[in-house]
Structure formats: structure tokens, C-alpha cells
Automatic annotation (TrEMBL):
Originating species: Microlunatus endophyticus
Protein name as it appears in the record: Beta-phosphoglucomutase
Molecular function GO terms recorded: beta-phosphoglucomutase activity; metal ion binding
Record keyword Isomerase present: yes
One Pfam family hit: Hydrolase
Length: 244
């Protein structure tokens, strides 16, 4: 860690939170959904080793859904037509597989529900009391549904999710565009804002956007890899950032 770890987040004007794995443990829901979808698909092709948790962190984590599909398939030397976002989930295209994964995600979310990390809510409470603006920046098109399921949708006046990114033609992480858009919506300069991410691609996006501070939350990606991707600070739980 650097001396920047001593910087209190409430000295900044805004904190931009990723959702899955940062505010809520929906990364686990996504991981199960990706595993079910990809392994069923690989089984249908035959001759491929199974999709693993490491594949999730290496190729999928933090990226827009179709980018994650494309990245993983490329790692296995598989090429599919792009298709369109309207492709049904049974169509064998990049978009079709992405939509297939979304069906699995919705099933798991509906069955199991989701609760926010207590340490993360503790930090959000602290920031709100300090007058620091907050936003959610997520590649997921399900962000609002997840926030609503966790009971925290109304805590975030700005949400830049996969739907907003598509509407505004914003490049996904590791490009910084979605974070920069959220900062702009909050009327805050990037160097006065903090990015909080658990994904390597998200941390890289924060660094590429020249934000004032990039906080990595180690939910499995690895502290060293988060720092290598651009994190100034790495914590295991966001409650660690709340001053006693």
C-alpha cells in the first residue's frame, strides 16, 4: 500500500461504486449463472475443458455481458457470430449466449435474493453523513433490479448501468467511460472522485480515467493483481475504510 491509504474518502466529493462484489454479493450469483451457461454450452460442443472460477476472473468479471462472452470464447479458440441483443437465448451467437446467461442470473436472483454487504452499507452511511455524493457504476443491465432486491435502490441518485451505457454508446470497462459519465452526472471532476471496484477491469478503468483514488476490494481477484491493475488501496471489506 501507499501513503494514499491514509486519505479519508470523505475528503473527496464523490465515491463511485461498482455493484456486483462491491455493494452486494451478486458476483456469486453471476459466477453461478456464468458457470451453468458456459458449461452447458461447452458440453454441447464436446472436447472442451470445463469453465472454471478462474475463467470468471480472467475473462468475464467486471465486463459488459457480451464482452465477457466474447473474451471467454476467444480464450478457447471459439468464434461465433455476434448476433444482436434481440437474439433469443437459444441462438448460438455471442448475444444469444449472453442472453442465455441473463436468464440463468434472473432465476438465481429470484430464488435466492440478495443482501448488501454490511461493511459496504456502513461506508455508504458514513459518506452520506459527510456530504459525499455517491453513484453506482455497473456493467450489468440488472443493476436496478439487484439494488431494489437489496433494498438500497433509493440510496444512489446516479446509476450508470449496462442499459445507460448502451443508450449513451459508452464503452465498457476497462475503458473509463462509464465512471467518467457518472462523475459528470454528479457534477464532479474525476480527480475529486473515488472509484471502488473488485474487478481487474474495473480497477483498470478507474486508473485510466485519472480518478483521485482507486480502491480495490479483494473478493477473489487477489490483492496483488488489483494493485497491478491500478488500485491505490486494497481492502477485504469496505467497512475498513470507515474511520473509527
Amino acid at each position: 500500500m501507499t501513503d494514499r491509504t491514509k486519505t479519508s474518502l470523505d475528503t473527496y466529493e464523490a465515491v463511485l461504486f461498482d455493484l456486483d462484489g462491491v455493494l452486494t454479493p451478486t458476483a456469486e450469483v453471476h459466477m453461478r449463472a456464468w458457470e451453468r451457461m458456459f458449461n452447458a454450452y461447452l458440453d454441447s460442443r464436446g472436447g472442451q475443458p470445463p469453465y472454471t472460477e478462474q475463467d470468471y476472473f480472467d475473462y468475464v468479471d467486471g465486463k459488459p455481458r457480451y464482452d465477457g462472452v466474447r473474451s471467454f470464447l476467444a480464450s478457447r479458440g471459439i468464434e461465433l457470430p455476434e448476433g444482436t441483443p434481440d437474439d433469443p437465448p437459444d441462438v448460438e451467437t455471442v448475444s444469444g449466449l449472453g442472453n442465455r446467461k441473463n436468464v440463468e442470473f434472473s432465476r438465481v436472483l429470484e430464488t435466492d435474493g440478495v443482501q448488501a454487504f454490511p461493511g459496504s452499507i456502513r461506508l455508504v452511511d458514513h459518506l452520506e453523513k459527510a456530504g459525499v455524493k455517491v453513484a453506482v457504476v455497473s456493467s450489468s443491465r440488472n443493476a436496478r433490479a439487484v439494488l431494489a432486491a437489496a433494498g438500497i435502490l433509493d440510496r444512489f441518485p446516479v446509476i450508470v448501468d449496462g442499459n445507460v451505457a448502451a443508450e449513451r454508446h459508452l464503452a465498457g470497462k476497462p475503458a473509463p467511460d462509464t465512471f467518467l459519465a457518472a462523475a459528470d452526472d454528479l457534477e464532479v471532476l474525476a480527480d475529486r472522485a473515488v472509484v471502488v471496484e473488485d474487478a481487474l477491469s474495473g480497477v483498470a478503468a478507474g486508473r485510466a480515467g485519472s480518478f483521485g483514488l482507486v480502491v480495490g476490494v479483494d473478493r477473489g481477484a487477489g490483492a496483488d493483481r488489483l494493485r497491478e491493475s491500478g488500485a491505490d488501496v486494497v481492502v477485504a471489506d469496505l467497512g475498513e475504510l470507515v474511520a473509527e
